[in-house]
Amino acid sequence: MLTLAVGAAVAVHTAFAFATDLASRRIPNLWNIAAASAGMVVHGAAGGWKGWAASAAGCAVLFAVTFALQLAGAIGGGDAKWFAALGSWTGAAFAFHTLLNAVLAAGLMALVHFLWKGTWRNVTRRWTAAAWLALSARSAVPVGAARSLAERKEMPFMIAVLPAVIVTAWQWEGSGRTWWTVF
Predict the structure, then answer these.
(1) Beta carbons within 8 Å of 129's beta carbon, 6+ residues apart
(2) What is the tens place of the pLDDT at every residue in 124-141?
(3) Is the pTM of this model over 0.90?
């Protein structure tokens, strides 16, 4: 029964966030708080204190990782909280793999976009110059420029997250691990 509840919760959580992110470029805080709390309640009811603690740990670990990404300007605050809520339902390992797959998917989508639009040369030159100056500690300006570019997101991150959830579930199933009972 827990398997069905977790699978359904992840599907609803992902679909709702996808729809709201596309429509308004926001994922409501109340939604993420409710999803994270529900994950902890369900796992607490099914597994007692150990289930609740594992759920809370998944939530906390993913929030810490994604909050750092948010501070760097890589993702939005709603995305960070969405991953924390995912961690409360599936555990840190599955949610972290989903994050990695989403970052890869977003990178691939950006590459296709740059190639399609023909802007890849200019973007590559700017980012290479910024990386060189930042790594050689000659200027902190490129770091600020990179952050301002990240704040002007062209694409809602959930466009990459939706396929990442599906791919991660498929990867975990193929490896013999059951993603929704990682606790």
Answers:
(1) 142
(2) 776 677 666 666 665 555
(3) no
